[in-house]
Amino acid sequence: MKNPTELKNKVVLISGGGGALGGAVASFMAQKGARVVIIGRTEKSIKEKEDQINNSGGLALGLVADVLSQTDLEQTRDKILAKWGSIDILINAAGGNKPGATIGPDQTIFDLSIDHFNQVTALNLNGTVLPSLVFGAVMKSQGAGAIINFSSMAVNRVLTRVAGYSASKAAMENFTRWMAVEVAMKFGESIRVNAIAPGFFIGDQNRDLLLNEDGTPTDRGQTIIRNTPMGRFGEADEINGAVEFLSTSASKFVTGIVIPIDGGFSAFSGV
Fold first, then answer.
1. Considering 28, 135, 150, 165, which one is annotated as catalytic?
2. Taken in order 213, 215, 219, 224, is the CA torsion positive or negative?
3. pTM tops 0.85
4. pLDDT tens digits, residue range 36-52?
5. Which of 90, 136, 185, 271 ranks highest by number of CB atoms within 10 Å?
């Protein structure tokens, strides 16, 4: 990194910061000296991560907020600005899936629940768009900022079963590029919008899908590992380097891109 202390005292806001990947990023940013704000709907996980960072010598603020509520986000914005005066980096890590938007082994596309599909789309697309608008407007006023969204391997490769998740993440990735172009052309080069696309990491949402009770890979997990040239699942802290790069001046001429962090999964043809 050009300046290893560049993140010191930066205000970093992470949605979904109580989850496996968002939580790993939150801890990493705090270790780099950033002031970390964690938002999410579950008070318990937000509080646990806040306490973990603060008890480890970092500086964190946990706030309960729904990424689909503009009122929640605006109140969160006001609290952050009152406490720390800026919002320098936004990391949109919140996302998820619903059973009815997933096609089971004994189902077809025609069993898709449009209600669950809409809920998944709202969370993965609108749950990135709305925070980007609310907190991105602060960056516009400041004249600088970085937004990093969480995409997925489900965008460019057709992964069976996850129909709603794939479609919504693809739309979110398109929005990432669109917003990057829009803000650069109208507000200059100091506001950048990028994304990372994690490969397969074990978290609460996919643990039962990818691992058996004894910790061995399920059939689906084995298929993923066979199609990952590095031959394993990712570790949560392995996304931190890309996030740091996109957060700092090391990437000051980089906007509108998506970085895969996937052990080669997206490069492999399967043969």
1. 165
2. positive
3. yes
4. 999 999 999 999 999 99
5. 90
